[in-house]
């Protein structure tokens, strides 16, 4: 098979007959292969059994069923005779489903909720938090030194009034005077007969129960109740808001205002006064509706969309052109120093992007930056604040950040091109450019075209470079929105969804999905164009 | 050097010195000029990083004189800080990066082989889905990943929050992403006739994969491995949510703490750390270069 | 100390995207094959980490988790050790990247996996309360031991939510070698600065770092307040009232005009090309007599050889020049399973002078505990910052503040850059935009 590359050349030039479906003429696996397969599958199954046991012990039956199904599918894939593609794809797909598809599905779910600041968790959590925050210390009430006692599993608070009387109480049992059996040197009651005094370690064992104790200070609950948060100090609290579980309402104890579940994930009064903490609810298509009606979005949308495409397109074009050019320039075995050239060339890629962004914004500073100051002899060019120059600068910096990637990939790609093509063509007297244009580039595109599409998609959502350098600015004149000449769709989404009075994950997800659909459609169309390239082989 | 120079062509192997200048320039000289220009473009901005790394005054203006001061204060601070174990971070990054990129290459190659060499139902849809998955804006991934790992950790503590194994698994979720796509393109350039003849010689599909295909696509395997490593070693968001313990953090997460405090950020120490963090990448690249530049023509077709 | 949450938020995300995008492009393993190789290298570290981070579901845990940043972590070591010795409870200091503490806390607290205690600035409170993740703290009689401004800052909707430890604000840094005498009005400051430039002692009359994307409303705020414009008016309960935006006032318009006058096309007292980094460098090199900045830039300035004094903030109008005051403190998770231990540690241990002293020694921020502050105030610079702070306004903690920064900064930048025909109208437009955002 020493003439392999020549064979390749011939094949590349002459169209191949259509590829046969599913070849079945493979030799059977070797004994070693079979053993390896059994061993690997055994490990997978062992892990799976462990996971299944864990799930069962925690009564996670739904997930148990899913995990069991996945395990069975994996075994089926590897134990049956056919289905070769699945054997190669399964491992990667497993992780893909777990960590990428799940994420997408979750985001899609979020788009139908109001998840975000103020709607962060469940309704129960919200109610607990509101109750916690509503426990206000009764003004001018004393601070009590406190001891926690226990009797028959119930915890009691023992405090000493300023006048020296010791009082004991617990939830549902108002404070009443007791005679302490032990007192501390400061006269504080520390024990009562028949009750066990809790040491600090005992307190720790029962933190939640102890902090939950609310001993009314009198028979009138409105006077407030005693509670402790650290076990050693107690205060008299009165709730500002009272929760009525049956009616599912909060009532303000001073004004009498009633806060009801307003159906939007918050408690609110009839006239719209809302409690700060809300919860997450499903809102249906509301976020999508907002996306299409928000003037923040519809206003400058066309300009931004156009620039997004231009940015993605030119980013791919420039990085690919430069990367390819450099790859070709150094793709000569007898070029001295190419190793060191290559290493230096990939450096921009090896540094944290935001560090580079900071440096570039320094370099582009109109007054102090190296480019104006030294390179252009003190010119005053507003690189980042003129709308067109800012677009140019963003592309320039993205070129700097991105060409090492293309350079690497093209270097790899060039290696797999058969040299014989080059030589044969050269003997025919073709110019170097001709050779490149009509032979090398088409071959190269076979391997690189998928990457270019994927690179376009990446740049379409290339949030970082825009945010680092210009933050989307300079702002458009004539619109009141925070959108500028270098904003792309994803940065605009970010500003709209997170730039208001809080982060709105629901809206952000909805917008992300809309953008995703746009890019997906475009990519599908271009993807189908690659079919012709693929057929070369 | 000698091991790397592959006898790609021998036509002008001895012509280098005798070559007249004009011809030398046309053949090779311009390449050096291109190299110098490109390198200036590449590394000039990074000189500011280097300059800041060796200047303990802690600013990073990116505009003023380079190397106006030169001291090792930042590096000393980097290694002296017991709260921020730079050496540990370095090792964590190497381990997580190498393990993940090796597995990425392997998983990706498996999938690329299937996509390139087999024709099955759903193949093009599968390829397209891979492409589309990468396009999903990542605005919300962190929340979902946190919740997922939180849940997984309850079942299998070893892969929950705080574990580097869990982090590696999350990274593996991207194994079939852009890199597989890239490898797929390359596998397509390897002539099918090679597999055919191997199979006629009695090779199984596994043998074809390991003994015929993989050696032929070494350049792209090396490229993908390198790209993965760079990606992982600078990945910040997921790592910072998953790795909670300073001892287990990676360089990107740890170093970031030097500049995350607005106004009291320490760019000098950060730059010093970034310079050191770039070294493994360079070392790996130097190591992999021989594979990247040994393609089809390197005689690896022996099977 | 990090006061500008909006900016923060942005910077986090931009990094998030920067790096996340790269990271997800990489990764992979065959479940089967990886089982052996990949786990071997990392499993030991990972299992121990996992074990310690998943706190026990019941109250029995004897470990408190405290999220801190690297800067404060060493200062907390001793007090945590003392707590462990006294009470047998370990305080696990988890060093988090500061910029992500708030948002990660909001996301993680509801799952029960979040920390018990976090350290942060008081202006996070609005967000934390809104998301129901932070619990009130009873300071009781201890409240009187603290700087009242600090306790007030940590009071939100009538409740105290944190134990303060540091109060922080800007001041006017002056290089005595260049400008020997203090001045009181901004006009005098500018005149003195210009004189120094004319005499060849300095290159810049005045320095303040301006972000090239959004200027710096935080640093310029005292000038704005001295002209009579605040960002939010205070309501009846003494907290900021989100419905009363104070920007669209005569004072605001006057400030807008002044910005244009001082800006690039005017007297060039402010230079939109001078970033925080450049300003710091120039001041440290002795190229200007004045630098409007905070305690965070003091150590490097002294190291750079500046003969430093901190002057009261100069006034541009007839009102006092009030800076924003940021208060740092410890907050307890509403979902903490160790609430009792957390309260014990925060209220009874972190309020000790030794804890506050040690935090001051590490961070250099004026302590909130009066006793510690008095000790620290032996340093005239700390004292000067402290005095300026007593006159300051707490950074608004209300969530609506998030909607303000972007427009506020962009407009200031535009005015400083110059070329705006009617600065007052531009300012008014900004106020209207912000008001619209808050309403929606």
From TrEMBL, chain A:
PROSITE patterns (alphabetical): ABC_TM1
Keyword Transport: yes
GO molecular function (one): ABC-type maltose transporter activity
GO biological process terms held by the UniProt record: maltodextrin transmembrane transport
Subcellular location field: Cell membrane
Chain ranges passing through the membrane: 31-55, 61-79, 88-112, 304-328, 340-360, 392-414, 435-458, 505-527
Pfam families in the record: BPD_transp_1, TM_PBP2_N
InterPro entries assigned: MalF_N, MalF_P2_sf, MetI-like, MetI-like_sf, TM_PBP2_N
Record key words, sorted: Cell membrane, Membrane, Sugar transport, Transmembrane, Transmembrane helix, Transport
Residue ranges annotated for the ABC transmembrane type-1 domain, each copy included: 305-526
Region described as Disordered: 1-26
Keyword DNA repair: no
CDD domains: TM_PBP2
Gene Ontology CC, one term: maltose transport complex
Function: Part of the ABC transporter complex MalEFGK involved in maltose/maltodextrin import. Probably responsible for the translocation of the substrate across the membrane.
Protein family (similarity comment): Belongs to the binding-protein-dependent transport system permease family. MalFG subfamily.
Protein known as: Maltose/maltodextrin transport system permease protein
Native organism: Neomicrococcus aestuarii
Automatic annotation (TrEMBL), chain B:
ABC transmembrane type-1 domain sequence ranges: 90-288
Origin species: Neomicrococcus aestuarii
GO CC annotations, alphabetized: plasma membrane
Transmembrane segments: 33-54, 89-115, 127-149, 155-187, 208-232, 267-288
Location in the cell: Cell membrane
Gene Ontology BP annotations: maltodextrin transmembrane transport
Entry-linked Gene3D superfamilies: MetI-like
Protein name per the record: Arabinogalactan oligomer/maltooligosaccharide transport system permease protein
Membrane topology: Multi-pass membrane protein
Keyword Transport attributed: yes
Pfam families assigned: BPD_transp_1
Family: Belongs to the binding-protein-dependent transport system permease family. MalFG subfamily.
GO molecular function: ABC-type maltose transporter activity
Keywords tagged on the record: Cell membrane, Membrane, Sugar transport, Transmembrane, Transmembrane helix, Transport
TrEMBL record, chain C:
Signal peptide: 1-31
GO aspect biological process, one term: maltose transport
Domain of life: Bacteria
UniProt-listed InterPro entries: Maltose/Cyclodextrin-bd, SBP, TAT_signal
Coiled-coil region: none
Gene3D superfamilies xref list: Periplasmic binding protein-like II
Keywords: Signal, Sugar transport, Transport
GO cellular component: ATP-binding cassette (ABC) transporter complex, substrate-binding subunit-containing
Pfam families on file: SBP_bac_8
A molecular function (GO) term: carbohydrate transmembrane transporter activity
Family: Belongs to the bacterial solute-binding protein 1 family.
PANTHER family to which the protein is assigned, alphabetical: MALTOSE-BINDING PERIPLASMIC PROTEIN (PTHR30061), MALTOSE_MALTODEXTRIN-BINDING PERIPLASMIC PROTEIN (PTHR30061:SF50)
Protein name per the record: Arabinogalactan oligomer/maltooligosaccharide transport system substrate-binding protein
Species the sequence originates in: Neomicrococcus aestuarii
